Predict the structure of Beta-glucosidase.
Amino acid sequence: MATDAGTAIPRFPPGFLWGVSTSAHQIEGAAEKREPSVWDVFTAAPGRVKDGSTAAVACDHYHRYREDVALLAGLGVDAYRFSVSWPRVNSPGGLDFYDRLVDELCAAGVRPVPTLFHWDLPADRDWLDRDTAARFADHVTVVADRLGDRVGTWITLNEPAEHTLLGHALGTHAPGRRLLFDALPVAHHQLLAHGLAVRALRAAGADGIGIANSHGPTWPASRDQADLEAAGFYDVLLNRLFADPVVLGAYPEGMGDLMPGDVESDLKVIAEPVDWYGVNYYAPTRVGAPQGTAGEFGGVPLPAELPFSVREIEGRPVTDFGWPVVPEGLTELLTGFRDRYGDRLPPVVITENGCSYDGVDDQDRIAYLDAHVRALHRAIEAGVDVRGYFVWSLMDNFEWAEGYARRFGLVHVDFETLERTPKASYHWFRDLLRTQRPA
Ligand code: GBH
């Protein structure tokens, strides 16, 4: 994979932002100190999470955030991407937690980068309701008013594509709906929420605003017309449906007609200019025409009636999750974005990249990250304006429907004792950051 491993990683441009990411529901715990989210309701029902676990305690970051900020400082990152739990902000004293966290980060010299929604919707809200978009903007205003004096970089939403697909189309994530294509309003309402959030942030005097969308190249299974068409449709559904409205102010051809409400006027809100565009990258997807089974998406079996099928990418190492390791997919994705969106594409930040492997001596994670950082540098050399790179994740955490079985962290967490142990990859990333900016 990393054929050039061993030679030094090239120097990134001055001011390039290095960071790590987490999300509230996956690390905080202290569930009793906040209102329930759709994820609390979802995981309370049996059979939803593989190991039967919940995020009631998770990494207990709510109580251990000082220790975790010390780990960030030891790593030497410029920035820390975390998420603000909307149900916690709704609870008495909830915002105080983020106030303390931001203070601690600032004192440690780490830039706070809050995401305002990372899938933990208050249990009494619903993305099928248009009104949720407006209520989200209210939440954003409350957070910005409180933290805005110390926060200069904001993320509206995390991966509305995955939240739509897994949560509302396939039902393997909260809230567990299986609406297939009837889930499309959930995508539109989240995009509208994004646009309203950008406006709310600007009104609160904030800038440095972006979104974190998940993207990966779609590889057609063959050059046959049927495979090309199926792959094209998949690409529209998972990539362009979420990038085009934000970057171009338009839905891909035919998709706007499937969305609710006054789509043209909503698109003006959705296209509210952002300062940068966040990309979460894990792997490409190989897609062909429908066949007997539709394959899997990130380990989730797809229903056979879909107009495409996801095929295995052969001849590649896979992570513990079974996802193929394809670093050059990151270069391809970013140069493809530049070619498609041209001058309309804002500066890009990689807001997530990482892999699940077990073990504290995680040489496989080091190989993955090393190869992806090099692939990112190649995109910069090819002229893509990339301003930052965040590893998913700072520490092992609650990996949604997989429970605690998948470990994405640079820091190992023992979920019995909650003890944190930096892995080999933590030391590797720390050393990389040192060589990227010598004294
Ligand atoms: C992100 O989701 C989330 O933002 C984060 O909360 C989560 O913990 C993290 O990633 C790790 O899962 O089957 O090879 O085609 C990303 C989810 C990543 C799921 C790419 C589908 C397809 C890989 N997506 N994946 S593959």
